[in-house]
Amino acid sequence: MAYSSSSVRAFSSLLYRFSNGVYLKPHRSCTLKSALLLSGKISSSSCYSSSDKWVFPLELQSCNSVRKIWTFSPLCMGRRSSKIAGRKTAQDLKKAKLYSKIGKEVVSAVKKGGPSPISNTALAALIEKVKELDIPKDIVERNIKRASEKGQEAFMEKIYEVYGYGGVGIIVEVLTDKVNRSVAAVREVVKDCGGKMADSGSIMFKFRRARVANIKVTDVDRDQLLTIALDAGAEDIIEPSMDDYDTEANSSESRVYKVVSSADNYPVILSKLQEEGIKFEPDNGSELLPITPIEVDDEAMDLNKELMSKLLELDDVDAVYTDQKY
């Protein structure tokens, strides 16, 4: 077997060999031939050069039982690490979807009432909402200009209902300027992932719409939150699921308590949380919460997660909800 001189130089820098239990670390300038000679795997008479190539004996070419030592940690991701990375990706996607939805709402508001928040109450309300959610101002400014562009249509809200695996229901919220495009994209993803489109109203009744304040578990004491929120009139406190891989502090960063409230009492709860110095993330208008979560096996859970992830990747999709129990 022949090796080019460039291959020899490349592989020699990665070569580690043992001879009689002694570790040999080749110098940067060490060639593959010299490293093998040092390790005793070949003798100088058993190989020869031909132009710019080295030819090694057959017994060496078939040798694959060489002991190796890693001098650095293997590059890999265990289940826990992938979960943390997955949560970070989900958080980034959630923020991107929020920005996108606000931008679409700004376009629709400007299309209906003009670019001035003084005369356009819907736009003025959106600007206040942007301040509340700590969204960059340029999101509003950019989309006010976008609304005046030729051919830009107003956005319409659509809801699609989907059957997932294990009897799970999925709600897909869409804000689009091209309804035919959005429904075609959603249908394609659902079909490819093995789901099934449902008739309007066949899944929605399994959910209730509520206002929600999200609070990281690392930012508050559980008992303190329960006392404050319930005294302020919260309807429910939804605690995050916990498993064996979510017990460390680092993995708790993205786990949240959901303080559920009616629309009327929502400002009261936010005000109370602020008074107590508890950091929270408000919803973007409302959330859909399952009335009776459905428990499924691991396989169905993974398939539903993949389906929902693919749906969220669609540009027109702003939110995806499920009654699957985690």
Automatic annotation (TrEMBL):
Residues 157-323 form the TACO1/YebC-like second and third domain. It holds the Pfam family TACO1_YebC_N. Residues 80-149 form the TACO1/YebC-like N-terminal domain. InterPro entries: Integrase-like_N, TACO1_YebC-like_2nd/3rd_dom, TACO1_YebC_N, Transcrip_reg_TACO1-like, Transcrip_reg_TACO1-like_dom3, YebC-like. GO terms for cellular component: chloroplast. Belongs to the TACO1 family. This is Probable transcriptional regulatory protein At2g25830 isoform X1. It comes from Nicotiana sylvestris (Wood tobacco). The lineage of its organism: Eukaryota, Viridiplantae, Streptophyta, Embryophyta, Tracheophyta. The gene is LOC104228403.
